[in-house]
Each structure stands twice: as structure tokens, then as C-alpha cells.
Specification:
Layout (H helix, E strand, L loop, with lengths): L35 E4 L9 E9 L3 E13 L2 E7 L6 E3 L8 E2 L2 H6 L19 H14 L2 H14 L6 H11 L3 H14 L4 H13 L3 H14 L3 H18 L2 H14 L5 H15 L1
Antiparallel strand pairs: 1-2, 1-6, 2-3, 3-4, 3-5
Helix pairs in contact: 2-3, 2-4, 3-4, 4-5, 4-6, 5-6, 6-7, 6-8, 7-8, 8-9, 8-10
Length: about 280
């Protein structure tokens, strides 16, 4: 969902202070620990912690490969069970909390490879635009849009009109509130392919956030005309309804409210937003 309204396990988090491993402190996002060894929490009743290696699978997304279990003795990690060549994996999601990332010294003490041999299998085509786009997509999905920009911009230099790339790049820019940069990408994308409604959806969002309401409306109307998805049409419509609600333009608000309700399923979130706007309008 791309609205501006909005104030509406796999594995949890663990971390250790710099001084004592017995002092737990969880401070690393799982997507900040990609290509690194990390440790996860245990239940109060458990005596060991699980650890593993986080990487990105081009097809499946951010993933943990289980490494084994360990415990803490005299402020040091001690491996209690090492899963050599383990194929036990978990897909990590936004619900995954913070993790603790091993230092180089701790990796050495546990007799681990800083970069496991198997990792190269997942990076055999890491310099291709397709790979870089997919990695950016997974980082966008995780909410790490600033990190997503790095592979996406590399891909853009290689093949700017690769399917899905311009959308991912503009999505990241919009999420970072760099709306003018998103517009620059999207204008070129539409020039190359004027029949992708996602470009108009993102472009309308950019204009709306820059308070260029007329341009946003023209753009969303084009997107609605092209799209075959009622859900997407309702999303673009409710964004414009919200914009006119804020501007207190009742005529335009009613127009876009009708469009939203035309495309949104009865009782859906977008339909509920319209009801909320109407109630708030009547309170004034």
C-alpha cells in the first residue's frame, strides 16, 4: 500500500555489549548483517543460542543458513554444536528483529569461514543487471530502501530499461522522499514504455508529495485508464481523495471518493479511509 495517510518467526533479536557477552544488547537489523555471521536469542529455558549466516538468495530473498548452537563461557562464545554444511535455512521477513553480528575475532574463535565457500554459488552472476535488480527488490521489500539504492543504481547503469528496475528504483527514491529523483527516473521509464501503470502510480505519488496536485491527478488518471487491477485503481483514487481532503476541495474530494468506492471492495481498507475522511470533514 502506498498511502501518505497513515498513522493508522522466524527469528528474534539478540546482541551483546562490546564489553561483556553476558550483557545482551540487540542493535543490528537483519538486513544490515547480510553476508555476515549472526547469533539469535534463546528462550529463558534454553542453555544455548542458535547462530547462522545471513545472505541474499536472488530468487527467495534475505535468508539465514543455520550454523549450529553456542553458549557463553567466560565472556566468550563456545560452539556446543556445529552444523557443518547445514542446508537448514529460514527466509527472513520484516518480522525478524535485531541480531548480533560476530566480530572477526569471534568468527576465528569459532573456527568459521568469514565467507563460506557455498556463498559463491549465490553470487555467480552478481555483476549482471538482473541480479542487482533482484537484490534491490529484496532490500526494498525488507524496508532497507537506502541499501536497495546501491545495487539498483548499478543495475540502472548497465540496463536502465530492464523490466521491473525503474519501478524498484523509483519506489526506493519515493520511500526516501527524494521525489524529484523518482520523477526523473519515471519520466524516462514512461517515454520508453508508456503502458506500465506502475510507473504512473509511482509518478503520481511523487507529484502528490511535492504538492503538485494537478500533475498528480493527470498522472493517476492515466494510470487508472491503463491498469486492469481494481485494487491498484482504488489505491490511486484514494490517494487523490486524500489530497483533496487536505486541500478542502469538496467537489474534487467527492469525485475521487466516488472513484475509490467504485474500485475498492466493500469494507476494504481504502473504502474505510473514505468513510473516515467524510466523518472528519463533517466534524469541521
Amino acid at each position: 500500500m502506498r498511502l501518505t495517510i497513515i498513522t493508522l518467526l522466524l527469528i528474534s533479536n539478540i546482541g551483546f555489549s562490546q564489553n561483556k557477552l553476558t550483557e545482551l544488547n540487540f542493535d543490528t537489523k537483519y538486513y544490515d548483517a547480510v553476508d555476515n555471521w549472526v547469533v539469535f536469542p534463546k528462550k529463558e529455558t534454553d542453555s544455548t543460542y542458535a547462530y547462522g549466516f545471513i545472505y541474499i538468495d536472488q530468487m527467495a530473498g534475505i535468508t539465514l543458513r543455520y550454523g549450529g548452537t553456542l553458549k557463553i563461557e567466560k565472556d566468550k562464545f563456545v560452539s556446543s554444536a556445529k552444523a557443518n554444511n547445514s542446508m537448514i535455512i529460514h527466509r527472513l521477513t520484516k518480522k525478524t528483529n535485531n541480531v548480533y553480528q560476530f566480530s572477526d575475532k569471534q568468527i576465528s574463535e569459532l573456527d568459521l569461514q568469514k565467507e563460506p565457500e557455498w556463498l559463491s554459488t549465490y553470487k555467480s552472476n552478481e555483476n549482471t543487471a538482473e541480479y542487482l535488480k533482484d537484490i534491490g527488490n529484496h532490500l526494498n521489500h525488507a524496508g532497507a530502501v537506502d541499501k536497495a539504492l546501491v545495487p539498483l543504481l548499478k543495475a540502472y547503469k548497465i540496463e536502465p530499461h530492464l523490466k521491473g528496475l525503474e519501478f524498484e528504483l523509483s519506489f526506493a527514491y519515493n520511500a526516501l522522499k527524494e521525489f524529484n529523483k523518482a520523477i526523473e527516473i519515471l519520466e524516462k521509464a514512461i517515454e520508453n514504455n508508456p503502458n506500465d501503470y506502475q510507473f504512473y502510480r509511482e509518478l503520481g505519488y511523487s507529484y502528490m508529495n511535492l504538492e503538485q496536485i494537478d500533475e498528480a491527478e493527470k498522472t493517476y488518471l492515466k494510470g487508472i485508464k491503463i491498469s486492469t487491477s481494481d485494487f491498484e485503481k482504488s489505491e490511486m483514487s484514494v490517494n487523490m481523495a486524500q489530497a483533496y481532503f487536505r486541500k478542502k476541495n469538496e467537489k474534487k474530494f467527492n469525485e475521487w471518493s466516488e472513484k475509490t468506492l467504485k474500485y475498492a471492495k466493500e469494507g476494504s481498507q481504502y473504502a474505510q479511509y473514505i468513510e473516515y475522511f467524510k466523518k472528519e470533514w463533517n466534524k469541521e
